[in-house]
Structures are given as C-alpha cells and as structure tokens.
Amino acid sequence: MESCHHHSVSNKEIADNIDQFGCFIVHVEGDDYLPGFTYTIGLFQQYNHPEIICFGLASEVAGSMLNYACEQVAANQVFKVQTPYSEFIDRYTIQFIDVDESYYQDYFGTANHYYHHTDYPVLQLIWPDKEGYFPWDPAFNPNFKFRQPLLDRNTDFKFNEERDVAVFTSAQVLTGSPILFVFHDEDGYWQFHSEPEPDLSEAKLVSLESIVKMDPTVNELFQLSPGQWAKRGARGDTWEWGP
Asked: Which residue, of 39, 46, 209, 242, has the greatest Cβ tally within 10 A?
C-alpha cells in the first residue's frame, strides 16, 4: 500500500491501488505544531464502509493498522463507534468515533478530489495512552492531547491549543474592526489584527476562544504553523496564507 501527500498522486493511481488492494492510503507528515495523519480512500467505494483516519502515529505504524482495517473490511467486518477492538495493537484496545463533515476540507483533500464530493462517511481510529486511557478519559496522558484531535467534536474551536491560551489583538479589533491579518509567530504566539503593521502600544491580551467567538472565520486558520501569516481584504474574503 502506498502513501502520499495531498494531490501528489493521480486519481488513476488511486483507483488502481483500490482495485488491487481494496483501498489507497494517504499519509500527511506532521511538524512540531501539527500532528501527522493517515487515512484510507476506497473503503466507501469498494465496500460501502466509512473511510478511516488516524492521527499522531508514524506512517509505518498507521499504514499497517489501516491496511489491517482494510483487510478486515474486505472480509465483511463493519467497524462501529464506542466499541473496543483489541486486534490492532498488542495489549491495548482502540476505538472508533465518527468524523464530523466540517473537518473534511481540513484533512481529506485527496479523498475529496478523488470522490469529487464530500458525501462519504469517515471513522477516526483512536489509540490509547500507555495506561490504556482514551483522550476523553480524565486520566488520559495530557502530553498526547494535541497529537490526536477528536474529529467528532470541537467544530467551533479547531485550534491546536487550549481555549484559554492568551493571544494578542488590538483595541480596534475589540471595538469592532474586522480581523484581516493573523500572525502565528515563530515562538508560537498568535496575533489577530485589522492592520498589517498594528500599533503594538495598543495591543491587548485576550483568550484565543474569545477571538474565535468574535469572528468564527479565524477558525479556518487553525493549521497555520508557527512562522506563517494569513491575510484577507475584507471580512468574509478567502484567507491568503504565507510564506
């Protein structure tokens, strides 16, 4: 089974792999800020089964797990949510959750391009920490929290930070000026401004969640890595990312 980055493979190559193996596997590398992820294309087409995505694991590990899932689906296995499965990882169980369609544009670019639509279901494979706890368990290891975003929830706040993390904005934004310039500094700090070169003497510290509630469209920038910026001409315009 092969891996690829978004749109670096033709639909014909994907279709050929689906015909030969039952599914095609896409892997997108992570970085120091965002976790990598791996997902299938073809389970829905071949078997009317949801596609499967997994976060935060090495490509070889995730690929092996998804290849196994594909083999089981081909043998008429139907994976269900809120059900423990012990055959994926030695001494541990995994579970599946449904993926909300609002995440499809964020993570399934190659699948959307292949299917020409987003009308297909997806399950997320959730792995536990070393003590066997899942991300929704109170005792789950917090060091793994942002390695495995849960795609059945938090559609109103997709950022890879805590909701109460402090970010910089300006008095103008707080009094109604649109957010047109967003900077994710190399040291990890976020800035949300209405001008490209704001007067930092007017800078204000607020929570990231309050910014998202003020303008939900900034939620579209949650994958902006440290060192990147985004801008637009007016509220409602498409964001332009750089560098």
From this structure: 39
